[in-house]
Design a protein that fits this description.
There is one protein chain. By secondary structure, the protein is mainly α. About 65% of the residues lie in helices and about 5% in strands. The chain has helices at about 1-45, 55-65, 75-85, 100-120, 125-145, 165-175, 180-185, 215, 225-235, 260-275, 310-320, 325-355, 355-360, 370-395, 405-455, and strands spanning about 240-245, 245-250, 305, 310. A hairpin with a 2-residue loop joins strand 3 and strand 4 (about 310).
Length: about 450
């Protein structure tokens, strides 16, 4: 069936090409006749002749006819297929309707389309330089200004080592002092998802959680996922945890919380704020909220890490002090890096390619990000993470891990790899298709205008 349609289209095009040649030949003959008439009229122009009344009447008749529109005869596509099939009995190949120059034009057009595409989305030498230099600068800040977090057992107000560690500690202590944390905790209880002992859960596996690790294991305490799992657990009287590499919602002995979704979201926000910098009962630093997605990473217990596994290593980091506060500390170099990347990228686009400031900035925005800038981000995060690996190896301390850098590399690396392997090809051919359709629409518009002009010709 497809072969028949293919043959019908080729033969129909061949028929239209033949008709076009015939029309062009007749137009050439008409043009010659008009040139001859023009010469004769020029010769008559030298003689003063008074037009006869019949000539003037005929001229007015033709002028009136040319000012009236007439409907042109409509041609049915099936009629063209039938006429073409009757005229060309043998199967035809594509080469019979496309000349060598036609094929060359197609190749040249594709080359231009691909070149334009690569100009918009491909990296140049300045992009690589910006990515590498900014990544190294962020790594240097991490080496010089970020230290491993203190133990949860140190005093809440004890000064920490590291320039950025100190900045973040002072900011948290000023914004969320103990009295405010205590007030937020009392005014925003969340019930079931705040369970910290196994006796408050029904039918639980052994060692599912305890007061030390419950904020990590209960997904309601994740700074991002907590708004989803926390509201769900409050409405259903459950506590959602990660245990044995899987997510489980365990029934709690506590009653579900009352209120609509927006009220529960507000309660969840207040509770998370109360936990992020709250001192322990003994006045120690304690363990605040886990870093974003830290609890969900415990599902990766199948990945071996030495004598342990990845899930256990994540929990070891948390119980030894690597919480949301340390995540903020490690995010400072990354935030500086992202600002520098955007500034240098915009300057480069404006200076080298005369791109408008707004368009260049839009290329770096998360919702409208140019894949080129996504790759730059992936390279920068990869550079900083590589140096951070060296830092952990030299110090022999996994607590020096820059969680923000690794998370940024994973996120941007995934999107950059997806672009390189799949989206790039799809985007290229989508754009080529869109531009070809635009050209065809322009051609159709031109034909419509010719039809209007033809309808005004006298019969």
């Amino acid at each position: 069936m497809k072969k028949d349609v293919y043959q019908n289209e080729i033969k129909a095009i061949h028929l239209l090409q033949d008709r076009t040649s015939e029309i062009a030949s007749s137009h050439s003959s008409i043009g010659s006749d008009l040139d001859s008439i023009r010469e004769q009229l020029a010769a008559l122009g030298a003689i003063e002749v008074t037009p006869s009344p019949e000539f003037s009447a005929k001229k007015d008749e033709y002028l009136r006819a040319m000012s009236c529109e007439r409907s042109l005869a409509k041609v049915n596509l099936l009629d063209i297929y039938q006429e073409a099939g009757a005229r060309y009995q043998e199967p035809m190949a594509l080469s019979e309707i496309l000349t060598v120059n036609d094929w060359k034009d197609v190749d040249d057009k594709l080359d231009r389309r691909i070149s334009d595409f690569n100009t918009r989305y491909g990296l140049d030498k300045w992009d690589y330089a910006i990515a590498g230099s900014c990544g190294l600068f962020a790594a240097m800040l991490d080496l010089l200004c970020v230290n491993a977090p203190p133990k949860p057992t140190v005093k809440w107000n004890q000064e920490v080592d590291g320039v950025f560690n100190e900045w973040v500690q002072k900011a948290f202590n000023k914004i969320l002092p103990p009295d405010l944390s205590d007030a937020l905790s009392k005014s925003n209880p969340i019930g079931p998802p705040d369970t910290s002992v196994m006796t408050d859960l029904i039918g639980v596996p052994a060692k599912v959680l305890n007061p030390i690790n419950h904020r990590l294991r209960s997904l309601a305490h994740d700074p991002i996922l907590g708004f989803l799992f926390g509201v769900w657990d409050m409405m259903n009287g459950t506590c959602t945890v990660v245990t044995n590499g899987e997510i489980r919602s365990l029934r709690s002995t506590k009653n579900p919380m009352e209120g609509n979704v927006f009220q529960l979201l507000g309660r969840m926000l207040g509770h998370l704020l109360s936990d992020v910098n709250a001192p322990s009962a003994k006045g120690n630093r304690g363990m605040g909220l886990p870093a974003p997605f830290m609890g969900i990473l415990r599902m990766c217990e199948g990945i071996p890490v030495g004598d342990s596994n990845f899930g256990k290593q994540v929990e070891w980091l948390y119980v030894n002090g690597y919480d949301f506060r340390q995540f903020v500390v490690s995010s400072v170099p990354m935030a500086i890096m992202e600002v520098l990347l955007r500034a240098f990228y915009v300057i480069k686009q404006m200076k080298l390619y005369d791109a408008p400031f707004g368009e260049s900035m839009l290329d770096t925005m998360p919702t409208k990000m140019n894949p080129r800038f996504r790759i730059i981000l992936a390279l920068s995060y990869g550079t900083s993470s590589a140096v951070n690996t060296g830092k952990m190896y030299v110090t022999q301390n996994i607590m020096n891990a820059n969680y923000a850098s690794w998370m940024g590399m994973a996120w941007n690396g995934f999107h950059a790899l997806k672009w390189a392997l799949l989206d790039r090809q799809l985007k290229l051919w989508d754009e080529i298709e869109a531009k070809e359709i635009e050209e065809i629409e322009g051609l159709i518009g031109h034909l419509d205008r010719l039809s209007i002009r033809a309808s005004q010709l006298p019969t």
